[in-house]
Amino acid sequence: MTAASAQQRTDRFDVDPEPVPFTVRASQRVHGGLALGAALVAVGFAASASTSPTGVLRWIAAAAFAVLALVCARALTVGDMLVADDVGIRLRIGNEWIGTRWEDIDQVTVLKRRHLLDDGRIAVHLHDPGPVLGAMPSSTRKTTDANRRLTGSSLAIPFGLTARPSNGEVVQALHMLADARCPVREQL
I need a labelling partner for 33 at 20 to 30 A (CA). Which of 14, 69, 106, 123 fits? Predict the structure, then answer.
């Protein structure tokens, strides 16, 4: 008998490990590359601008690319867009967080990415969306209304090229977290 085999075994394998939270975050690489590229193009247009009539157009183009660079740089500071854990789902729309418990969700539908340039989507359908949507500021409600017109659900988050899920198996990860409290379906 060796010393290693004489030690008491304390290794245990948990049958039901604690679920790991699922997140969707903005892609730092994509937004960083776009911010840098737009800033360089803005500097190029500004450097070649003059006071001639075509120079004014170059200043306008420089300003537009500078705004694009700022928007992309702001996306670098944004954290999670969606967080799902064993309690429920929280989505960030604009600067507002909207959270709901799994029991209040009618269903979650996931549209998977079909190819590299295609975005997938996670849509949360509530039993009664009135109280949640009614408590939001008007600017956020405009975004959720546009979401509803485009995707069929007021609470929807894209993932794909510009936003990365923490787990590639989105349906399976959300199904494990929902734990039979609401259905998680893949949209075909």
Answer: 123
pTM: 0.74
Are the beta carbons of 98 and 88 closer than 8 angstroms? no
The letter for the amino acid at 33 is G
Give the pLDDT band of residue 38 (cuts 50, 70, 90).
very high
Q: So what's the pLDDT on residue 6? A: 53
User: Same domain for 120 and 131?
Assistant: yes
Same domain, 50 and 101: no
pLDDT tens-digit series, residues 79-137 = 888 999 999 999 988 788 888 999 999 999 998 888 877 788 899 998 888 888 888 88
Tell me the DSSP string of 130-148. HHHHHTS-HHHHHHHHHHH
Looking at the structure, do residues 106 and 180 belong to the same domain, yes or no?
yes
User: DSSP 3-state assignment of 89?
Assistant: strand
Q: Which domain holds residue 152?
A: 80-187
Residues 136 and 96 in one domain: yes
> How many distinct structural domains can be found in the chain?
2
